[in-house]
Amino acid sequence: MQRAPITPRDDWQQKVSSAGLVFHSPEGEGMDRPYWDESACYEFTAAEIDTLEAAGNTLQQMCLEAAQHIIDRKRYAELGIPPEAIPAIQWAWNAEPPAIYGRFDVAYDGQGPPKLLEYNADTPTSLLEAAVIQWSWLEEQFPNRDQFNSIHEKLIAKWQDVAPYLSKPVYFAGLDNAEDQLTLAYLRDTADQAGLPTLSMWMEEIGWNAGRQAFVDPDEKQVFSLFKLYPWEMMLQEEFGPPLLDTYQSMRWIEPIWKMLFSNKGLLPILWELFPNHDLLLEAHFEGSGAVRDYVRKPLHSREGANITIVRDGQTVATTGGPYTGPAIVQALAPAASFPDNLKPGATRHPVLGLWMVDQECCGLGIRESSGLITDNLSSFVPHCFIS
Amino acid sequence: MKRSAKVTAPLLASLALSMTTGCRKPEMQRCVDENNKVVDDKLCASQPLAGDSQQQRPDGHGGYVPFIPLYHYYYGGWGGYGLGSLVGGGSNTPAEGHSYINSTGVRTGTVRGGFGRSMSSGSHGSGGAGE
User: Fold this and answer.
1) A136, A229, A388: residue with CB nearest B129
2) ipTM given for this complex
């Protein structure tokens, strides 16, 4: 694995924008380079890609075992999951309503084994960058190389697979935010290409009609199948949380509610309990229940690198602000993955590798990197390739 | 090969184009009275548009005067769909390139806005719900 400086394509901004990535160069957000950074790329060997693919598939099986353990041992409180959500989680876990995708974030530099940092299994983004934009980049820049990226094909196949279990149309709902809306548009694209009729609406447009005991669209039509790019823990806290739980079995919410077990930092110490010293894991504990010398403190529900604290030798070496309070976990610091920064001599870039999971299968890779140790919403996306 | 044979995403490209050309979220279309207070949409739907009709003069002198509607649609701006509530900041005519939604849901007893508030205020990072 190496980070190779390359010459960006002429007019790359127009190219990535017309393909869907309009937020390639955010202005005024403190970034020292574009979000989409094709002034470099990560190059892998085929063996390294095989290692990453196998790691994703192994981690998925481990997480499924961990979820079964949480349900069997009723460890919901440790994950901050409200008691009223438990019946719906248990029902969904057993009934297996459609689930589509997720992204493992791992630390890896080509030397040791990949190490799981967290599992974004409920509302992962950076999907279109990984599935579409870097694929187009490779087609143009290195057509004879390969890329770990069959995300597009796997998504279409997954929608075809779950189509019989979904009432149509399938709605796609999210916030009025460019990244979220473009992620939803892309997922709709893949559902459309799988032959599913789709519609979109804003989260705020979802209506609840108490008389009909139904969620409805802006035209008052009952919604039976809905992909929401909105976290479960927040939906449950909001006004429609109670009717959602009351009617959960009559609707198909994607991702399903049991994804709360995965998209929760509490999964990490439970994995460590079940698979101690596993090559793919970093030591992790619920805060106060175990000590790690050099660690990262993460609130159970923190997102986008918010409210993260890094402690080394008893000293806080990095911390971020944010709105996420409440219980946290501590996770051992991953071995430092850093590569020379081609734009700033003497500086380094720290990549986090996103392993995309579709239908329980690891099918793609997207890399975000930052100048510091914490990957947040200011980190850049850097494309990758490998020689097969 | 581990990469997709072909990747096409026309919806994505179309949305990206609309974002870069300024097409945004639908805005509210409400029926209001002469004081810009929201009334039932039926009152706007059941009367002719201004200038499209005439009415007989009420003073008994015969003849006709242009019909001036009591109610009209109000496009965009602040306020809600609640009957009797005040609106403002919008326009009496729809703006080119904007889309609008009416209050159909409100009239029929549906409550909206019960999802999305935790993250739509910008209180959580960049305002998006993805990660």
Assistant:
1) A229
2) 0.90
